[in-house]
Amino acid sequence: MEVIPMDHIVSKLIIYGDLPKDSILMELADICKQTREKIQIKDEREKAKTNDEREKAKTKDELLTRIYHQVKRILIVGTDYGFDKNLWHNYLTFLLMTDENPFSITCEKIGANDGSVNLFAKNDFKAFKALFDYDFTWIEEELGTNCFSILSNYKSIGKPELMYNKNVSEKVLALSEKLEQAKDENEFFNSVTNFYRDYGVGMFGLNKAFRIQSSDDHGVVLHPINNMDQVMLDDLIGYEIQKKKLVDNTKAFVEGRKANNVLLYGDSGTGKSTSIKAIVNQFYPQGLRMIEIYKHQFKDLSTIIAQIKNRNYKFIIYMDDLSFEEFEIEYKFLKAVIEGGVETKPENVLIYATSNRRHLIKETWGIEMM
Questions:
Q1: The predicted structure's pLDDT at residue 315
Q2: DSSP β-ladder status, 314-319 and 349-355
Q3: What 3-state DSSP class applies to 291?
Q4: pLDDT of residue 203
Q5: Mean pLDDT throughout 174-178?
Q6: Do both 227 and 255 map to the same domain?
Q7: Structural domain boundaries enclosing 233
Q8: I want to staple 107 with a disulfide (CB 3.0 to 4.6 A). Which of 9, 154, 196, 248 is the partner?
Q9: Quick one: CA dihedral 104, 109, 112, 117, positive or negative?
Q10: Are residues 11 and 131 in the same domain?
């Protein structure tokens, strides 16, 4: 059976077709194209009874180098997220899980409804099915490598959970196995859209907690916190009344009912920060996510909220050990968000803070001597 060129398959993508040119999939498609052209040139030279061995070897080495670079990139992603068994399938699954486009974000909110866009989606899933079933034998034989065979039958090294994101790993492996068993684009469609509906898409669909970092264009980027403590509220001894209030408030929040911002205050070591982490762990399956922000980043609060306000998740913006000296002005950014400025705080965002002080702004009293 003739193998459909990978670049031809990728060129048919519509919804998922805007991948960067330097992405692994696009690079591999280009390598396959270059290798195919190399074979055609070689055949033409054989017909003409001419052959430049040095040029042929150089071209082969260059293609091998490019392939090994992409294989290394797959291995790096696989190590970070605990891929196993078939790393090529895991990588393609990871692409589908993290591609935020109008179709995937809509499915995140309401699932897969009837609409013409489904025809475009199924076109893309037919292409992804072809990529799942892609036979790399021809390029391995042409370039003298077995790297894709190894990736397709991979046995990962066992490692502690702290070394990779287990939560992401489990989701990737489970969906990858479903897609491997899909008979056609319709079953592919059902599996992917069900995942979007149940877990969401992109980094919010895969991770519980995030911290922010300034980007080169003066914006902010959310980075997943891969190894958050797996503590639960039952692990904390005492404070039953406080824990119940925290649970009740968070439960109301994730269920779309009225809920309050929260300040947990008390002495150091009393479990304030641990309680917040436990709440996120408990309500993560219901769509709760946490974004940790530090005092010097409060100026970015509006930018962060703009990124998350239309997503189908509930977000806790978490501020640990919060307090202000009288000369600090960062509290004004926080005050504007809580009290509402021109733009009101969206209903899917709450602020949870911890502090050693009940009164966050330190005040000093002076006595004027008469």
A1: 94
A2: parallel
A3: strand
A4: 86
A5: 96
A6: yes
A7: 207-355
A8: 196
A9: negative
A10: yes
